[in-house]
Design a protein that fits this description.
Length: 279
Amino acid sequence: MKKYLVIGNPIEHSLSPLIHNHWMKKYRLLDSSYEKKKVEKKDLAKIVKQVRSGEISGVNITVPFKKEIIDFLDQVKGVARSCQSVNTLVKEGNKVCGYNTDVEGFKESLGDEFIDIRDKKILILGAGGVSTSILEAFVETAQKIYIMNRTKKKAEELKKIGDISIQLLNKNKNTIQVVEWGKMPEICDIVVNTTSVGLVEDKSFDLDFTSYEKKKNILFYDLIYNPKETIFLKNARLRGNKTLNGKMMFLYQALYSFQKWTGVTPKIDNETIKLLDNA
Ligand code: ATR
């Protein structure tokens, strides 16, 4: 039996088991199963050991351990290294390797909607766990990236991570700029909410987006997909902006993890999407 896990804390609400078990059944990987497990920081070393021994065949990592897991890994691969965020563990030879499929998942979700991210101005709201992946997704092609977080110090730490990539890419060192929470920068092409505000249905923040009125080509993206439409997205829709929630990003990051573990590229068809919609 091949055992897969998603670990985090809290973990009750994770829909990863639903999607992965669906694909495992669909692609006849009948000796495989995927479960969720609530863990503490002290459990991370053991989980990695279990991957190394083959007791666990693959792991997804979610909040708040995407950075903390790194200390226990043999190798951190690709963009996971630049954004210091690992969401997928894979055993390669005798090594436990950490990958990040959030960056690609996010990019793919934009590609799906034919949203061109080259040369654009981006506003990232929040500087928590997932924001490094979003920043990494934009860093190569953006013209300008503003980071706004309630706690400014965390936005500055996020900028530092992004600035390493900026330097490697030989881009203008002022590409990433931190702005004070509530102090709106120039109008941007894409505004992404990476904060947890909105997870509670009637919660929102009072940022002033009146200058975005009737701008139908500006995209407001909320990484949250449950609720389907946060107040952030609802307001954007009513203002006449384009909106997108985090559903497809979630599905694509799952797809890339599944692909790494099994070699199978699952299909994100209506059946898969419906599964998530009805959860
Ligand atoms: P972390 O990674 O820090 O554990 P997270 O849940 O990934 O936490 O991130 C939470 C994000 O939502 C942070 O950017 C947080 O802002 P702070 O850094 O100031 O805490 C943001 N956030 C949470 N509640 C918020 C609120 N009421 N208004 C604005 N931002 C909020």
